[in-house]
Amino acid sequence: MSVSPPSATSQTPGEEAAPSPPVPQPGRGFVQDIILNAFEPGVNQSVLIFINLAFVLLLLTLVGLTLLVGLDLHILLLIVLAVGLMIGFNWFISQLPNTAPDPKTTSKERDKQE
After folding, report:
1. Distance CA 105, CA 93 (A)
2. Assign residue 75 a region: left if phi > 0, alpha if psi is -120 to 50, beta otherwise?
3. Mind listing the pLDDT tens digit for each residue in 56-98?
4. Among 47, 68, 80, 83, which is least packed, fewest CB within 10 Å?
5. What is the pTM of this model?
6. Concatenated DSSP letters for 22-36?
7. Are residues 46 and 37 in contact, defined by beta-carbon separation less than 8 angstroms?
8. Under a CB-based contact definition with an 8 Å cutoff, are residues 41 and 19 in contact?
9. Phi/psi of residue 3, each to 5°?
10. pLDDT tens for residues 30-50?
11. Element (H, E) at 51
12. How far is CA 84 from the centre of its chain?
């Protein structure tokens, strides 16, 4: 496990640093990066690749099922739903950097609100 160097920005006491987006650590493998991301805030690139790969495999399975069984309304509906879910998921993840926590509230105040 590597320790990241302290940030170069100076902070006054009581001021919290803005959270930086998680990036894959150089010493981690793909699977280890996915598992360890469950304990870190945000979504890193390995998880996005894994989820999109799962969506592609789902679509390939549904298309293969369509080729084997024939054109079926239920399978076509599942394909449309899978494509919509994939597009919606990727859109949501792309919008996450645009949301910033309210700088007026501290983490202690947010914990009290929950």
Report:
1. 24
2. alpha
3. 999 999 999 999 999 899 999 999 999 999 999 999 999 888 8
4. 68
5. 0.59
6. P---TT--HHHHHHH
7. yes
8. yes
9. -105, 130
10. 778 778 877 777 777 888 898
11. helix 45-69
12. 17
- Residue 99 CA to residue 72 CA, distance in Å, equals 41
How far is the C-alpha of 104 from the C-alpha of 101, rounded, in Å? 9
Residue with tokens 């979504």: 43
Per-domain residue ranges for the chain?
A: 45-96
**Rounded distance between C-alpha atoms, residue 21 and residue 79, angstroms:** 32
Residue type (1 letter), 103: P
Closest by Cα among 6, 17, 10 to 107? 17
Alpha carbon 26 to its chain centroid, in Å, reads 19
Query: Which residue do the tokens 């870190």 mark?
Result: 40
Residue type, 40: E
* Structural tokens at position 112: 């009290």
**Phi, psi torsion values for 36, nearest 5 degrees:** -70, -20
Distance CA(47)–CA(90), nearest Å, equals 12
Helices (H) and strands (E) in the chain, counts: 4, 0
Closest C-alpha to 90, from 49, 34, 35 = 49
